[in-house]
Amino acid sequence: MDILLATHNEHKKQEIQAIFPKFITIKSLSDIGFDEEIDETAITFNENALIKAKAGFEFSKIPTFSDDSGLVIPSINYEPGVYSARYAGTGNSSDNIEKVLFNLKGIEDRSAYFICVICYFDGIEIHYFEGKVWGKISTEIKGENGFGYDPIFIPNNYDISFAEIPTEVKNTISHRALALKKFITFLNNKKF
After folding, report:
1. What pTM was computed for the model?
2. How many Cβ atoms from other residues are within 10 Å of residue 133's Cβ?
3. What are phi and psi of 167, to 5 degrees?
4. 150 annotated active-site
């Protein structure tokens, strides 16, 4: 069975395919000839994930899933939230990190969470699967691995950042991994 992942990111596709049931083949937007970028214009993670899943399904008529994720820091008005990728307005991860660290200056509560919402749409049903990992924002950049906010996010029960945790460990505890586990359980139980 084919399923569409509403992304152009081939690395993400391969990473997810490796943990999916063998009876499912994941296709990306590039695989089906969908060349446009899908605008994420909503104000919630669920709505952004749904926009991408519906766009992929409407183009391909293949059951489609997509994810939207970000960093949420309650003490600074739940920012950056859905604007995580473009928080500083430059599209640059280093700038986004600097803005977070600047906005947290003098704030004691540095608790934060990463959230990932997966939306599955098959033309009839819409299903959501959420993964969340809590932690805190460090006062400095730590580590070389990962991407985005990983160098400043220290997950609970760890004293190192996501960017310092080995990839194979991060891929079992991350917000995306937790959401994917729920989604895979759903697919394994679904009658196709």
Report:
1. 0.91
2. 20
3. -50, -45
4. no
Q: What is the mean pLDDT of each run of 10 residues along the chain (192 residues)?
A: 91 83 91 92 96 97 96 98 93 94 97 98 97 97 89 96 91 92 91 62
Annotated active-site residue in 68, 122, 150, 159: 68
Q: Is 97 exposed, middle or buried (0-12, 13-18, 19+ CB in 10 A)?
A: buried
The structural architecture, per CATH, of the domain 2-189 is Alpha-Beta Complex (3.90)
* CA atoms of 10 and 2, how far apart (whole Å): 16
Which candidate, 154, 169, 75, places its Cα nearest to that of 114?
Answer: 154
Residues in contact with 47: Cβ distance below 8 Å, sequence separation at least 6, in sequence order: none
